[in-house]
Amino acid sequence: MSLTDLEAEASVPPASEVPGGRKIEGRSPWQLAWARLRQDKAAMISLVVIILLVAMALLAPLIAKWAGYEPDFGDRKFGVTDDGLPVGPNGHHYLGTDRLGRDILVRAVYGARVSLLVGLLSTALAVILGVIIGATAGYYGGAVDTILARFMDVTLSFPYLLFAIALAAAFGASTPLTIFVITFFSFASIGRIVRGQVLQIKEREFIEAARSLGAGNVRIMFIDVIPNLIAPVTVLGSMTIPTAIIFESTLSFLGAGTDPRTPSWGNMLADATESYTVAWWTLFIPALFLLITTLAFNILGDAVRDALDPRSERLFAAQKANRKKRK
Amino acid sequence: MTQDADVLVEIDDVYKHFPIKQGIIFKREIARVHAVDGVSLKVRRGETIGIVGESGCGKSTLARCITGLHPITKGRIIFDGQDISRLRGRALKPFRRDVQMIFQDPYGSLNPRRRVGAIIGDPFDIHGTASGAERKKRVQELMELVGLNPEHYNRFPAEFSGGQRQRIGIARALALKPKLIVCDEPVSALDVSIQAQVINLLKDLQQELGLTYVFIAHDLSVVRYVSDRVAVMYLGKIAENARGEELYENPRHPYTGALLSAASIADPDAAERRERIVLSGDVPSPIRPPSGCRFHPRCPKAQENCVDVVPELIVRGGDEAGHLTACHYPVEPAENLAEEHAAIEQLSTEPTLPSA
After folding, report:
1. Which of B265, B289, B287, B286 minimizes the C-alpha distance to B275?
2. Does the beta-carbon distance from A14 to B144 stay under 8 Å?
3. How many domains does chain A have?
4. Cβ–Cβ under 8 Å, residues A141 and A135
5. A14-24 pLDDT, tens per residue?
């Protein structure tokens, strides 16, 4: 085949136009992943649940106004029984009150703010830190890698609960401190995986191609390495969110997390340890919120992984089932 | 043959050794791989030089040394009158424009997350030669030049076949109008039918744009078809270097002879008639290469002299001017290599089966 033939071939009408006149558009990997994600019903339900939780957290003051109670003040009129016990769900308090007569619904709604804020913010920070440290270690190798990888190993082998309790004792429990602790103990597991991925990507030929074109390290890092990390990092991030939320609740439950006065699910659970024998709802409601939130994030995280990695078996099985149905 | 204006690249006694290191924190060198071990080669403007050899002989490492991807251990590489082997970092950038590489793996050499237009347009970005609409126009011209549909500018590499991907790699290599293109096994990952298309494309482009190629392959017939000169490598050294047809018609190094006899022939009758020279054993480890002539443990003509003295790469008796052979006892035209026996004891690495 000579060049003129090739030119002739190149000038045939564009193959992207099908006879019907409809244009076939090249879809980006993200469009494809989104299309796959939309097929997953459980993921879509989880997404709706998460959107509702976020809306609930954002609209917490409105919900408090509608319910007619403040999160931090007990209701002396209807909030406690004559014996001083919490009241169960009724017409005044839709989900009951705790032992101080505070409305559980309003507190749980405000608790969503704390949980989501801590969960999302510490995950975001952990991802940023993990990607920077992991990518630097993997890309530069040598002494840089040795120091950073050992540092990550050390953080991973820390007794994190003791560390968190010691910090809370030293500086006083607060939300920023909780975010710091969670970030510090989650970034290393992300950083390790990122480092492994970078080691793998670094040896691919397109990196060599970029280098032979004259691209510098920074350009290679941002144009060739990091875009190839987006899929694994998205998966890691979506898996880290529920862990971070649980982590926050655990710390708060132990009194080493958020300020014990702030309404958070962990603090509510801690309060409930003194009243759940007579008032099951004080334990049940915050635990239920926690369960729904982490479950939704976990299912969505799983589905995101499947959508971004079409080779994974679960999706393959689902497609087969779909095909059978169509027949 | 000193400073010839006609010579584009002069590789002068180049060594590339890779250290093998051990230890967790304090790494010390325990051995080194002699990937390229004293190679000298001249590439003239507009010619194609083929480099052949089995896997692990150092041909890809040599290619990466020429393109400046590997810093060399010893020696000089003179490109267009300038010694580039000591350049680092920013100083290498102008040289990068003139030398491009086409890679073996059409799947691995294109970033799967980027659109074809961005990949081919990369050289313009990196060297700041074109941007915006101008860049897009140039990219589409390149796509047309290599026989791709310019409409597919916005597609991802995954949407192309192996041959088309290799064309993308070629377009990227051509973008900056380089003087030299190093092709590292550009067709060995492709189907035979596609191989011919890509090779013809490379040949057409050479004529049209006056390119110089260093063409690395292990397929002898491909190299014969494209190359003006051919160098045969064995364990990091050049065994024989001659004009293409001369090398194929009149191989002087026993290794070349064995390699040629192993190449596939399209005619089954001819294939039946010819005698294959079967070498014993495997290629020795490049960590501890054999003394003297590197080929002596497997050579059917080896003598004691071969163990002690490294043969020089020079013109041997009766050969034409450019035909260099690194062998003490080159093969004579009438000789049958399959019937030769070495005068030294050769340890075979092949397993010996118990006789029944």
Report:
1. B265
2. no
3. 1
4. no
5. 444 444 545 55
Residue B283 DSSP code = P
Domain limits for position A237: 111-315
Q: A101 is written with which tokens?
A: 């007569």
Q: Can you give the CATH number for the domain in which A263 is found?
A: 1.10.3720.10
**Chain A residues touching B174 at Cβ < 8 A:** none
B152 interaction partners in chain A (CB closer than 8 Å):
16, 26
With a threshold of 0.85, tell me whether the complex ipTM lies above it: no
Is residue A191 in some structural domain?
yes
Contact B126 A213 (CB under 8 A): yes
Pick from B96, B113, B200: which is nearest to A213 by CB? B96
Q: Boundaries of CATH 3.40.50.300 in chain B?
A: 7-227
Chain-chain contact of A212 with B69 (C-beta, under 8 angstroms): yes
* A82 is a domain residue: no
Contacts of A109 (CB under 8 A, 6+ apart): A56, A57, A60, A63, A64, A71
- The length of chain B, given as a count of residues: 356
* A206 contacts in chain B (CB < 8 Å): 108-111
Q: Distance (Å) from the C-alpha of residue B248 to the closest C-alpha of chain A?
A: 26
According to DSSP, residue A86 is labeled: B
| Mutation site for B-interface testing, chosen from A201, A204, A205 by largest number of B Cβ within 10 Å | A205
| Residue A139 forms part of a structural domain | yes
Cα(A71)–Cα(A69) distance, rounded to whole angstroms?
A: 7
- CA pair distance B15, B75, nearest whole angstrom: 6
pLDDT in tens, B246-289: 888 888 898 888 888 877 777 777 777 777 777 777 778 888 88
Q: Is the dihedral of CA B233, B237, B243, B245 positive or negative?
A: negative
Q: What is the pLDDT of residues B56-94, one digit of tens each?
A: 888 889 998 998 888 888 888 988 888 887 777 777 888
Nearest chain A Cα distance for residue B28, angstroms: 13
Helix axes A142-156, A104-140, angle to 10 degrees: 150
- Using a cut of 0.95, tell me whether the model's pTM lies above it: no
Whether A318 contacts A256, CB under 8 Å: no
Task: Tell me which CATH homologous superfamily contains domain B7-227.
Answer: P-loop containing nucleotide triphosphate hydrolases (3.40.50.300)
- What does residue B19 show for φ and ψ, rounded to 5 degrees? -75, 145
Q: Which residue has the tokens 């958020």?
A: A258
> Is the distance from CB of B268 to CB of B277 less than 8 angstroms?
no
CB burial class (10 A; 0-12, 13-18, 19+) of residue A117?
Answer: middle
C-alpha to C-alpha distance for A246 and A269, rounded to whole angstroms: 12
Q: Which of A2, A9, A208 sits opposite B204 (nearest CB)?
A: A2
Closest CA to A185 of A205, A208, A163, A216: A163
In the chain, the amino acid numbered A122 is S
Gap from A147 CA to chain B (nearest CA, Å): 9
Would residue A14 count as lying in a domain? no
Tell me the residues of A at the B interface, defined by beta carbons under 8 Å apart: 1-3, 6-7, 9-10, 12, 14-16, 26, 28-29, 146, 204-206, 208-215, 219, 223-224, 227-228, 230
